[in-house]
Design brief:
Chain lengths: 250, 544
C-alpha cells in the first residue's frame, strides 16, 4: 500500500526556473523516508507542495490513494490529514505546551494530550510556554502537536538542523523510536546524510529540483553513478576515517 | 502563460473576489480623477496656467527643499545625540522630541504670528525689557518652511533614532581602530547607514508639506493644495481643480521615484554583517561644555516646535477662557474623538482585511489591487476630496437622469462619505505598520494552524490576532492621531452639522479670531499628546 504517490510534480516561482522539476516517486505505508539534498535543491518546496502549502504548476499528488492535487483540483490543507513539523518548530508562542498540543483536537483532549506528553517524556511541563523550553523540548512538543491529529503522513522539515551535535544523536534515536512506536508513515528532509542513514528506511536524493536517486537504505552505497551523491559519500567516508584516526590516537 | 490561465480556475477563490472588490471600492477617488482627466480642461484652466500654475510649482518645490533640509538637520542631529549619549532627564527629552506631532502645523503657524508678529507676545516682552526689536516677518514662504520644519522633523527623527540605536558596538570599534574620528565616523559610516530611514522620514515630511492647507493658506503662500481649494471654491471650476490635482499627483510620483532611486539597494542589514556582535554601541555620558551644546541642540526643536507654540496657545486660552470654555467645546472634542475612534477602528479592520486577503488569495497578481487601495497616503487630502466630490456628482447625476431618484442629500452631506475619505487617506498608515509585523511573525504559525485543521478566519482569530494585538493598537493610535489632525479633507467633505476641533480652530483663525482658536487647539493637543504618550509607552513595552 502506497501512502504517498507523486507524479511529474513541478513548481516554479515568478515563472523563472523550476524549483521542483518533474518529480515522480512513491513511498510505502509505514516507512520512514529521508529526502537529502543541498540548500536550494527544492526539498522544502517539495514538502510544502505535499502539505498543500504551495500550489503545483503541474503533476499530481496522492495521499493514501486519494487525489490531493492536480492541474484542475487542489484539496485544502486542512483536509489532507498531513502533519508537518517545521524547521523552527513553529510553536504558538502565546499558548502553553498543553494548549499547543490540544490546539487541533476536537474531543478527548485531556486523554490524548496526557498520552502524547508521556510519549515525548514531557509530562512535567504541560503549563510551560515555548520560550521556557530547550530546542529539543520544543521539537518534541511540535512533533506531539502534529501527532495529536493522527495524520496519515508525517512530514518533518530539517528536524535536527537547530540542534547541537551531542543532542542531535540522542534526538535522532528518540524520534525514530516515537515514529516507529506509533507506526506512522513519515518523510523528513535533511541536508545531512548521517541523519538519513540513522533514521530512514529509504532515501531520496534531490539536486536542482530533480530527484536523482531513490533507494532503500541498504542500497545507498551500491552502484553510485551520480557525481553529487558520490561526493557526499566520499566526504562521509573521509569524516568517518578522521574520527577513527582521532580515536585511535587517543 | 498557458499554465497560469489553466490554473486560474483552480486557484480563483472567494478571497480573490474580495480583494479586488475591497480594493476597488477604496480606490474610487483615484479612478475618478483619472477618468475625469479625459473630460477636457475646465473653463478657468487657461487663467490658472497663465497666472497661478508657475507659483504653485515654484512654491511647492521651494517648500520641499527648505523643509527637507531643515528637518534633515534637526531630525538626524537630535536622533544621534539621543542614541549615543546619556544624560539626566533623557527620557523626558526623548518624549518631548515627539511632541511637536501633537500640534497640527497650521496651529503652530498661528502661534508664531501671535508670538513674533505685530504686537506679538514675545516682541512685547522684549520691548518691556527695553530691547529694540527688529520685526521678523513670518507670513511668507520662509516662515512657512520654519513652521513646517519644526512641526514635521519628528518623522525624520523617529526612524533615524531607531537605526542609530541598532548599530552594533563592533562598528564603532572597527572605525576607532582604523583611526577614524567621531566626526568622520558620523558622516562616513553612521549617516550613510541610516540613509534608508532618513529618506523614508523625509518622504513622509514631503507628503505632509504637499498636503498642508491651513498653514500655507494662513501665511498666504500659494501651493498646489491651496490652489486646488481656490479653483474649486472661489473659481467654482471643479474640472480645473482636477487638472491641478493630476499635476500634483505627477509631482508626488516623481518624488516617489526619486525616493526609490535614492534608496536603491541601500537596505543594510546590520545584524547580517555583524552576526557575531549583537550588543549595541554603549552610550557615552556627557558633561561640561559638550553637555550644554548637545542639550541645546535637543532643546531647540522642542522649544520652537512645541513649547513656544504651546505657551502662546495657553496665553490665548487664558484670555478667551470665559467666552470659549463651554459645553459646545466639550461636545466638539467628544465628536472629534468619536469620529477619530470609529474611523481608526474601521481603518485598522480594513488594513488587516487587505493584508490577509493578499495572503489568502492564491492568484498573487491580483494583490496589486491592494497596493492601489493603499495609495491614499501619497495623495494629498485635497485631491482625495475632489475625487470623491467628482464621484458623488457622477453618482447623483446617474441616479437622477437614469432612475429619476435624488441621492444628493445622501452623498453630499453624509458623515459616511467623510469616513470613507479618511479610510482611503489613512489606510496605508495602518497597512504598512501591520504588514511589517505580520512579516515578523512569518507564515509558519498560521500554516501550522491550517495543518491542524483550522480555516483561514479561525486561524486569524486564534493565532494572528493575539500576536498582532500590540501592532494593531499602535496602528489604531497612529490613525487616530492623523484623523484628529486632518484638515483639508474634513473641510471639503464634512457635513454641515458636524465639526471637529481641527476645523473649529482653523475657522476661528481664518476669521481673524486667532486667540479664540486656542482652546479648541489646546483640547486637540491634549488629546493627541495623550495618544502619543500612550504610543511611546506601547513601543517601549514592545521593546522590553
Amino acid at each position: 500500500m502506497k501512502i504517498l504517490e507523486i507524479e511529474n510534480l513541478s513548481k516554479s516561482f515568478e515563472s523563472k526556473f523550476e524549483v521542483v522539476s518533474d518529480c515522480t516517486f512513491n513511498i510505502e505505508s509505514g516507512k520512514i523516508c529521508a529526502i537529502v539534498g543541498e540548500s536550494g535543491s527544492g526539498k522544502t518546496t517539495l514538502f510544502r507542495l505535499i502539505a498543500g502549502l504551495e500550489r503545483p504548476d503541474k503533476g499530481t499528488i496522492r495521499i493514501n490513494g486519494t487525489l490531493m492535487s492536480s492541474d484542475k483540483f487542489i484539496s485544502d490543507v486542512k483536509d489532507r490529514n498531513v502533519g508537518l513539523v517545521f524547521q523552527d518548530f513553529s510553536l504558538f508562542p502565546h499558548l502553553t505546551v498543553k494548549e499547543n498540543i490540544e490546539f487541533g483536537l476536537k474531543k478527548d483532549k485531556d486523554k490524548k494530550v496526557g498520552e502524547l506528553l508521556e510519549t515525548i517524556k514531557m509530562e512535567n511541563f504541560p503549563n510551560r510556554y515555548p520560550n521556557e523550553l530547550s530546542g529539543g523540548q520544543q521539537q518534541r512538543v511540535s512533533l506531539a502537536r502534529s501527532l495529536a491529529m493522527d495524520p496519515e503522513l508525517l512530514l518533518l522539515d530539517e528536524p535536527f538542523s537547530s540542534l547541537d551535535t551531542q543532542l542531535k544523536s540522542k534526538i535522532r534515536q528518540e524520534l525514530r523510536d516515537i515514529i516507529k512506536k506509533i507506526g506512522i508513515s513519515s518523510v523528513f528532509i535533511t541536508h545531512d546524510i548521517i541523519d538519513a542513514l540513522e533514521i530512514a528506511d529509504e532515501i531520496i536524493f534531490m539536486d536542482n529540483g530533480k530527484i536523482i536517486r531513490h533507494c532503500l537504505i541498504e542500497d545507498v552505497f551500491k552502484e553510485i553513478k551520480e557525481e553529487k551523491i558520490q561526493n557526499n559519500i566520499v566526504e562521509l567516508k573521509r569524516n568517518a576515517e578522521l574520527i577513527l584516526n582521532a580515536l585511535k590516537k587517543k | 502563460m498557458f499554465l497560469k490561465i489553466k490554473h486560474f480556475k483552480r486557484d480563483f477563490n472567494k478571497w480573490t473576489v474580495l480583494i479586488v472588490a475591497v480594493s476597488l471600492f477604496l480606490a474610487i477617488p483615484v479612478f475618478s480623477i483619472l477618468i475625469s482627466l479625459f473630460r477636457g480642461n475646465g473653463e478657468m484652466w487657461e487663467h490658472i496656467t497663465t497666472y497661478f500654475l508657475f507659483d504653485y510649482i515654484k512654491n511647492s518645490i521651494i517648500l520641499i527643499f527648505g523643509t527637507g533640509l531643515l528637518t534633515f538637520t534637526i531630525g538626524t542631529s537630535s536622533a544621534w545625540i539621543i542614541s549615543k549619549y546619556t544624560f539626566r532627564y533623557k527620557k523626558i527629552i526623548e518624549w518631548l522630541l515627539f511632541m511637536p506631532l501633537a500640534i497640527p502645523s497650521y496651529i503652530v503657524a498661528y502661534t508664531y504670528v501671535g508670538l513674533i508678529g505685530n504686537g506679538g507676545t514675545f516682541i512685547e516682552i522684549l520691548r518691556d525689557f527695553g530691547f529694540s526689536v527688529i520685526r521678523v516677518e513670518m507670513m511668507n514662504i520662509y516662515g512657512l518652511i520654519w513652521v513646517l520644519s519644526f512641526s514635521l522633523y519628528p518623522y525624520v527623527y523617529a526612524g533615524t533614532r531607531t537605526i542609530f540605536q541598532s548599530y552594533p558596538s563592533q562598528l564603532k570599534h572597527t572605525a576607532s581602530l582604523l583611526g577614524v574620528s567621531n566626526k568622520k565616523y558620523f558622516f562616513t559610516v553612521a549617516l550613510p547607514l541610516a540613509s534608508p530611514a532618513i529618506i523614508g522620514g523625509l518622504f513622509l515630511v514631503f507628503m505632509e508639506v504637499l498636503n498642508d492647507y491651513g498653514a500655507a493658506k494662513y501665511y498666504g503662500v500659494s501651493t498646489f493644495t491651496t490652489g486646488i481649494f481656490r479653483t474649486w471654491t472661489a473659481l467654482e471650476d471643479l474640472q480645473s481643480s482636477i487638472y491641478l490635482s493630476a499635476i500634483l499627483v505627477i509631482l508626488v510620483f516623481i518624488l516617489v521615484l526619486i525616493v526609490k532611486w535614492l534608496r536603491g539597494r541601500r537596505s543594510y542589514n546590520l545584524t547580517q554583517t555583524n552576526t557575531n556582535q549583537k550588543s549595541t554601541e554603549n552610550r557615552v555620558k556627557i558633561s561640561g561644555l559638550k553637555k550644554i551644546l548637545y542639550l541645546g541642540i535637543l532643546l531647540i526643536p522642542i522649544l520652537f516646535g512645541f513649547i513656544l507654540p504651546l505657551i502662546q496657545l495657553v496665553i490665548w486660552g487664558i484670555q478667551t477662557f470665559d467666552s470659549m470654555f463651554n459645553n459646545d467645546l466639550i461636545i466638539l472634542g467628544l465628536e472629534s474623538l468619536s469620529l477619530g475612534l470609529s474611523t481608526a477602528l474601521l481603518v485598522v479592520f480594513l488594513a488587516c482585511l487587505l493584508i490577509y486577503l493578499s495572503k489568502w488569495n492564491y492568484l498573487k497578481r491580483f494583490n496589486i489591487f491592494s497596493r492601489i487601495a493603499t495609495l491614499g497616503y501619497v495623495i494629498p487630502g485635497a485631491i482625495i476630496g475632489v475625487g470623491i466630490i467628482r464621484t458623488s456628482k457622477s453618482l447623483t447625476d446617474l441616479f437622477s437622469f437614469k432612475f429619476d431618484f435624488e441621492i444628493g442629500h445622501l452623498v453630499y452631506n453624509s458623515i459616511l462619505v467623510l469616513i470613507y475619505a479618511y479610510l482611503f487617506r489613512f489606510i496605508a498608515v495602518a497597512y504598512n505598520s501591520i504588514e511589517g509585523n505580520t512579516l515578523k511573525i512569518g507564515n509558519n504559525l498560521s500554516e501550522s494552524s491550517y495543518l491542524l485543521g483550522y480555516g483561514k478566519i479561525k486561524t486569524f482569530i486564534k493565532i494572528d490576532f493575539p500576536l498582532l494585538r500590540s501592532a494593531l493598537l499602535s496602528s489604531f493610535i497612529l490613525v487616530l492621531i492623523d484623523v484628529m489632525k486632518e484638515l483639508p479633507l474634513t473641510l471639503i467633505l464634512k457635513p454641515y452639522n458636524l465639526s471637529t476641533l481641527a476645523v473649529r480652530a482653523y475657522e476661528y483663525a481664518e476669521d481673524e479670531r486667532v486667540a479664540e482658536a486656542a482652546l479648541p487647539a489646546l483640547f486637540l493637543i491634549f488629546l493627541i499628546g495623550t495618544m502619543i504618550t500612550l504610543l511611546n509607552y506601547k513601543v517601549r513595552e514592545n521593546k522590553q
